[in-house]
Amino acid sequence: MWSQRAYVDFTLKKRATLSALFRGLSSATDACDADPYLRRAAKFHGERADRKCPVCKGEKMVELRYTFGDQLGQYSGRLKSLQELDEMQSEFGEFRVYVVEVCNECGWNHISSSYLLGDGVTRKPPRKQRTIEDEVG
Description:
5 helices, about 25% strand
């Protein structure tokens, strides 16, 4: 990603959470509390991570990339693949990406990092388009 900046690594927070879990200061239900929607997103849209789950040592760890930003308009808060992010960094001025790791076996989830992408040119958000959610809900 050529425009990646303002990178924040949440490894220390993750270590503190795991340390509390393994020392008995918190329970596995506190650490492995992935929302059903997050688990479903991980199952169908997650990209395989190259590491095992730190809690259950399972092999089904995946990463999700959520995008947020005013310039994204109604598309803020959606999941994107690395390929889509690569395209988006030239189309939008600035938006934040949150990388979340999820284990589909035990429900472990944690934000692993966040960063800004975009070419720095301020743009108006895209016009709102009607979606199926507008029709139904």
